[in-house]
């Protein structure tokens, strides 16, 4: 009897079906995105370009979900089902000016809020006297529409607190409080920096008695 060896060669079936994946998109904030190419499903390994465009007064911050990056446009490789969200924010970087009624000061706030999702304010308050001399205070506080609160410190002087509320998208009504005295001081936007859109829809209310 002659024994024979049989060798079987195994290889991947070249006719096996290709893998396809879905891309799910969403937006946080005010803006839009473009996807190229637009398909219901993408082949495994296919490259997709996603471009974010912020609405007026907003800026693109990042992509999140299946990928975390701030590259724009985004090159995405479809090696599985993907869920991507475009995140847009509103920077709060106005120079606010106002008139402190009852005393001979003009008021200028230079405050910054990093994004609409971070309510912390930092900056400076400058009081300008009629003779041209100035007093500068450091400012810390928060912007949580409709309320705005700023604490202003200068060594050797009374602390000044500004408490206000959004009257509209360009105007804050409020008071400066120094040593227990309240002075009306309304602030107006002095630059083209965008202000949070929430100010338009919320009913302003007094927060200082």
Explain what you see.
By secondary structure, this protein is an all-beta fold. The protein contains 1 helix and 17 strands. It has one helix at residues 198-201; strands at residues 20-21, 23-28, 31-36, 42-43, 46-54, 59-65, 74-78, 82-89, 95-100, 105-112, 120-129, 134-144, 147-153, 160-168, 171-178, 181-184, 187-189. It has an 8-stranded antiparallel β-barrel with strand order 9-10-11-12-13-14-15-17. Mean pLDDT is 82; it is low at 197-209.
Topology summary:
Elements: E1 20-21, E2 23-28, E3 31-36, E4 42-43, E5 46-54, E6 59-65, E7 74-78, E8 82-89, E9 95-100, E10 105-112, E11 120-129, E12 134-144, E13 147-153, E14 160-168, E15 171-178, E16 181-184, E17 187-189, H1 198-201
Parallel strand pairs: 2-8
Antiparallel strand pairs: 1-4, 3-5, 5-7, 6-8, 9-10, 9-17, 10-11, 11-12, 12-13, 13-14, 14-15, 15-16, 15-17
Notable characteristics:
single chain; 8-stranded antiparallel β-barrel; 209 residues; 2% helix; disordered C terminus; mainly beta; 17 strands
Low-confidence stretches are 197-209
Could you report the average pLDDT, rounded to the nearest whole number?
82
For the biggest sheet, the summary is: 8 strands, antiparallel, barrel
Q: What class, by secondary structure content?
A: mainly beta
- Tally the helices: what do you get? 1
Please provide the count of β strands.
17
Oligomer: single chain
What form results from the Cα inertia axes?
rod-shaped
């Amino acid at each position: 009897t002659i024994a024979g060896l049989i060798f079987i060669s195994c290889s991947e079936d070249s006719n096996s079906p290709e893998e396809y994946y879905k891309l799910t998109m969403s937006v946080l904030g005010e803006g839009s995105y473009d996807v190229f190419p637009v398909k219901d499903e993408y082949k495994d390994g296919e490259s997709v370009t996603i471009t974010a465009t912020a609405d007026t007064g907003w800026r693109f911050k990042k992509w999140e979900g299946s990928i975390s990056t701030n590259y724009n446009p985004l090159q995405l490789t479809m090696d599985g089902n993907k869920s991507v969200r475009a995140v847009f924010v509103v920077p709060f970087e106005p120079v606010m000016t106002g008139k402190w009624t009852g005393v001979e000061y003009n008021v200028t706030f230079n405050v910054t809020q990093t994004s609409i999702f971070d309510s912390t304010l930092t900056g400076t308050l400058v009081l300008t006297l009629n003779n041209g001399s100035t007093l500068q205070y450091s400012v810390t506080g928060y912007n949580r529409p409709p309320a705005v609160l700023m604490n202003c410190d200068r060594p050797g002087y009374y602390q000044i607190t500004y408490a206000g509320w959004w009257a509209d998208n360009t105007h804050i009504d409020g008071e400066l409080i120094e040593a227990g005295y309240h002075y009306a001081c309304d602030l107006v936007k002095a630059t083209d920096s965008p202000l949070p859109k929430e100010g338009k829809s919320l009913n302003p209310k007094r927060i200082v008695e």
